[in-house]
């Protein structure tokens, strides 16, 4: 739990979600947590997002920008990625890592995105949904729907708790109850409830569940 506090900051001070604390500590923790498979897992998320050269991509709850940078490489040449996160600390860190890539970052929250309607080809989000309070998750998904163009693609990826009771207990001790009991089976329903057509779902080892969805061309 202490590690969770270090990584996640103090929830008492946060009103719109749980932000992560020190960016470098998060990077080290995540590298260890993925057991050397972070790059492979997140590269697979990029493939699953369907992002192609020239696409405009939004990464919601981008944190330190790890996925944002990988997506930026996939949409070159001609594409661009925008990462949004409420934590100025991680946004600053992500900006410092952007280098010459077509990544930009803004502070903001998923449930009230300050971007125009239908302005992105792809929206991705990784490990962020469980940080957003459950009662505002539907609003966050409606915002992702709004900012995607008709026919645009959504990739939701979040932490899949271990199947074993011991594994879940260890996750709870390390990171807290939000991850131990993360209800990833509800991701499909969240997407469908916002108007998306869910296309596929599955797991990316070692820790991720994903849902692929599309904003329909015609809203019924
Ligand atoms: C575990 S980190 C994941 C970061 C990154 N996407 C990754 O895969 O490494 C969760 C992120 O969600 C962000 N977050 C918390 N509440 C949010 C909200 N309401 N809207 C958008 N992001 C939020 C946190 O600040 C944090 O950076």
Describe the overall structure.
Mean pLDDT is 90; it is low at 1-7 and 9-15. The protein has helices spanning 2-8, 23-33, 38-49, 66-75, 88-97, 137-147, 165-175, 177-180, 187-193, and strands at residues 56-60, 80-85, 103-107, 120-126, 148-159, 197-204, 208-214. Helix 3 crosses helix 4. It starts with a helix and ends in a 6-residue tail after the last strand. It has 220 residues and is an alpha/beta fold. The chain is built from 9 helices and 7 strands; from the N terminus they run H-H-H-E-H-E-H-E-E-H-E-H-H-H-E-E. The radius of gyration is 16 Å and the shape is globular. The longest helix has 12 residues, at 38-49. Helices cover 38% and strands 23% of the residues. A 7-stranded mixed sheet has the order 3-2-1-4-5-7-6, with helices on both faces. Strand 2, helix 5 (88-97) and strand 3 form a beta-alpha-beta unit. It has a single domain, classed as 3-Layer(aba) Sandwich (Rossmann fold). The structure holds S-adenosylmethionine (SAM). Residues 16-20, 30, 60-63, 66-67, 85-87, 90, 109-111, 126-128, 131-132 line the site of S-adenosylmethionine.
């Amino acid at each position: 739990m202490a590690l969770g506090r270090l990584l996640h900051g103090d929830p008492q001070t946060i009103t719109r979600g749980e932000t992560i604390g020190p960016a470098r500590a998060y990077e080290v923790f995540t590298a260890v947590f993925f057991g050397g498979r972070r790059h492979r897992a997140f590269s697979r998320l990029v493939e699953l997002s369907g992002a192609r050269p020239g696409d405009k991509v939004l990464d919601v709850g981008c944190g330190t920008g790890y996925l944002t940078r990988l997506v930026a490489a996939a949409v070159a040449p001609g594409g661009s990625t925008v990462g949004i996160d409420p934590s100025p600390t991680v946004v600053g860190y992500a900006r410092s890592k952007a280098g010459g890539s077509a990544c930009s970052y803004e502070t903001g929250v998923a449930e009230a995105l300050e971007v125009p309607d239908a302005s992105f080809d792809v929206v991705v989000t990784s490990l962020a949904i469980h940080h957003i309070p459950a009662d505002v998750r539907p609003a966050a998904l409606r915002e992702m729907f709004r900012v995607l163009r008709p026919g645009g693609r959504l990739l939701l990826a979040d932490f899949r708790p271990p199947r074993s009771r011991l594994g879940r207990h260890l996750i709870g001790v390390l990171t807290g109850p939000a991850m131990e009991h993360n209800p990833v089976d509800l991701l499909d329903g969240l997407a469908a409830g916002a108007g998306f057509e869910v296309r596929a779902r599955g797991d990316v080892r070692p820790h991720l569940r994903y849902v692929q969805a599309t904003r329909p061309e015609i809203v019924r």
